Amino acid sequence: MRSPAPTALGLLLLLLPPPPAEAAKKATPCKRCRELVDKFNRGMVDTAKKNFGGGNTAWEEKSLSKYEFSEVRLLEITEGLCGSSDFECHSLLEEHEGHLEAWWLRLKKDFPDLFEWFCVKTLKVCCSPGTYGPDCLPCQGGSQRPCSGNGHCSGDGSRQGDGSCQCHLGYQGATCSDCMDGYFSSLRNETHSICTACDESCKTCTGPSNRDCGQCAVGWAQEDGACMDVDECAADTPPCGNQQYCENVNGSFVCEECDSTCVGCTGKGPGHCKECVPGYTKESGQCADVDECAGPEKACARQHENCYNTPGSFVCVCPEGFEDTEDACVQTQAPGGEVAEGDPTRQPSREDL
């Protein structure tokens, strides 16, 4: 059989659905167990107020009490746990339906937390919050406040991870209880550590203002006991290019392009040009276009030639009915559409005969 042409093969590949990202998408056993428990708990909520439609309050209380712990209610909950195409959910439910039934009928009162009993204690696929790994060890900082409440414990609540802390912005250290540069400790005791951002002028600080800096940030300098912005634009050697102007901003500067009419500039627009580009001249403090066609000397030297001003320049154009030659605009058609005299294409008239 002949192999398909490259173009046809490429088209076929484009039409095929993209392969799933198996490693990134595949749920862990703990996540699947947690999802099943979450659906079970939602099913309990959905069926909590279900009754048999009677009008006798005493009868309803007695009937509802029986329904609350009944196998009928359990069946209604389990029937709604998995979608029709959710194979993994159906497989997990089928494998452990006996455990769920035992908890529902006999163990629910003694172990009210289904996740803890089912996923942590029975199946051993998850850990309690604040613990991690195969043996469910406490996270750094303890299981009650992992990572001092300022970070995420690797593997928290699962049988995976190493218990190390990934600290939130502003925090560092094994238990995320220390402040990074640019932050200071605004509260610290045996259980809590809170880091607050320094003033933007500080690299390190002990408080919130620019006078509390231990060291100034780049672009700032100590002045009268406070970190003040350095105006880089005022330096002896300009930090920007010849066709740029400098704008100072807090802690830094930006270089902006000069106006197109400028040769060098000190700011934005044609009013801040040092000099003007050819075709422009200073008028009322800014570079304006020179109208070469309105000058005392003719910009267009050839006879019959018309001058048209353009931004920064001008163009010379022969009018309609004239031919462009090297030295002049030569008339090829007289007014009214007659061929000009002397034109070799002109036909003799009766007066010429």
From TrEMBL:
One of its GO terms (cellular component) is endoplasmic reticulum. It comes from the Eukaryota. SUPFAM superfamilies: Growth factor receptor domain. Coiled coil: none annotated. Residues 1-23 form the signal peptide. Keywords: Calcium, Disulfide bond, EGF-like domain, Endoplasmic reticulum, Glycoprotein, Isomerase, Redox-active center, Repeat, Signal. The keyword Disulfide bond applies. It is found in: Endoplasmic reticulum. Belongs to the CRELD family. This is protein disulfide-isomerase. It comes from Enhydra lutris kenyoni. The gene is LOC111157659.
